[in-house]
């Protein structure tokens, strides 16, 4: 399914749901803020939001040990697409609950003319957002995100990247992220926002780490992550907003070991971790209070070595370089 095909299917499904009797407005619901830049971080109490999002990337480059971009061989291209199913619920006046789960399509075009591809479920995210103060256009919020290892995390190929037969759609590890969000709004048309987060990644037994010459299960400690995002958005028309965003991601070096005897000894995994910086431009259009349409484009402007996890397809640990195009359709009531 292509990029626009995924959006079309999502729109059709959401349109059917929005017209159904149980999904009409309720008198107990909180008021909706139509202006995008003044909108709080949480949904009004009693509102439910269902969305379909997709992002897709084609990469013909990789980053070396210095983070420098290098071209792949002629004919080699990495294609990575996700279709996200998302739901949010205004649990109370100051708390929103959410869940997100993707389908992942990973494909490598080979120089020989063939390809290796995988299509399966990815890791799901569950969490909540709380906004203690609701007065005024300026706002601050806090959130917690739990990533659960629900994707494919055991490789079908053995013996290293030369024998890769499919790609992983999940890391096999659990993450807990804590985030602080804030924004200032000026003249009801300009938003300056920032997000700061820390993601703790728990060690886990994973199928893509093996003990050489032994029988122990491999353990991976992915390395924790610090995130910093800056955002500038403008309400250019009624129900239309444009935004630019810079995202910094600092990830610690991964470690590997074995379970059982010697499990307390973990060894650093070379060419992992480092700093990634992405730049994003986005467009948000609200045809009505019940609908939102979004589109964005992202480009990595800095990165670390992407080779270590490349043959496994683990974009969370080492995103391959390239332009990413995304879109989202959201229905709420």
> Which second-level CATH architecture applies?
Beta Barrel
- Domain count, please report it: 1
Which strand order do you get reading across the main beta sheet? 1-4-5-7-8-9-10-13-14-17-18-19
Tell me how many strands there are. 19
- Element order, helices and strands? HEEEEEEEEEEEEEEEEEEE
CATH class assignment: Mainly Beta
Mean pLDDT: 89
The geometry reads as: globular
The portion of residues assigned to helices is: under 10%
Question: Strand fraction band?
Answer: over 45%
CATH topology term: Porin
The tally of helices reads 1
The major β-sheet equals: 12 strands, antiparallel, barrel
Stretches where pLDDT falls below 50 for ≥5 residues?
17-22
Integer-rounded radius of gyration: 21 Å
Structural class by helix and strand composition? mainly beta
**Straight-line distance between termini:** 28 Å
CATH homologous superfamily annotation = monomeric porin ompg
């Amino acid at each position: 399914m292509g990029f626009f095909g995924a959006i079309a299917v999502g729109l059709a499904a959401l349109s059917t749901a929005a017209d159904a009797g149980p999904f009409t407005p309720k008198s107990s619901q909180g008021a909706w803020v139509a202006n995008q830049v003044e909108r709080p971080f949480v949904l009004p109490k009693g509102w439910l939001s269902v969305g379909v999002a997709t992002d897709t990337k084609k990469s013909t480059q990789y980053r070396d040990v210095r983070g420098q971009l290098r071209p792949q061989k002629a004919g080699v291209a990495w294609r990575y697409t996700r279709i996200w199913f998302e739901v949010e619920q205004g649990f109370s006046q100051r708390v929103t609950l959410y869940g997100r789960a993707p389908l992942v399509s990973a494909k490598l075009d080979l120089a020989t003319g063939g390809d290796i591809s995988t299509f399966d479920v990815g890791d799901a995210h569950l969490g909540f957002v709380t906004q203690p103060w609701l007065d005024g256009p300026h706002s601050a919020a806090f959130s917690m995100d739990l990533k659960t290892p629900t994707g494919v995390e055991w490789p079908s190929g053995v013996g290293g990247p030369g024998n890769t037969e499919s790609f992983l759609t999940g890391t096999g590890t659990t993450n807990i992220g804590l985030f602080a969000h804030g924004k200032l709004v000026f003249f009801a048309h300009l938003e300056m926002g920032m997000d700061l987060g820390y993601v703790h990644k728990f060690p886990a037994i994973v199928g893509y780490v093996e003990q050489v010459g032994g029988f122990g299960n491999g353990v991976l400690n992915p390395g924790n992550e610090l995130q910093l995002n800056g955002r500038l958005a403008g309400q250019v028309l009624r129900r239309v907003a444009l935004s630019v965003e810079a995202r910094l991601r600092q990830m610690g070096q991964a470690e590997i070991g074995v379970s059982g005897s010697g499990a307390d000894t973990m060894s650093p995994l070379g060419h992992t971790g480092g700093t990634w910086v992405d730049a994003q431009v986005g467009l948000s259009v609200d045809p009505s209070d019940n609908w939102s349409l979004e589109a964005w484009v992202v480009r990595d402007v800095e990165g670390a070595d992407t080779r270590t996890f490349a043959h496994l397809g683990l974009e969370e640990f080492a995103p391959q370089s390239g332009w990413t195009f995304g879109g989202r359709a959201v229905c709420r009531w």
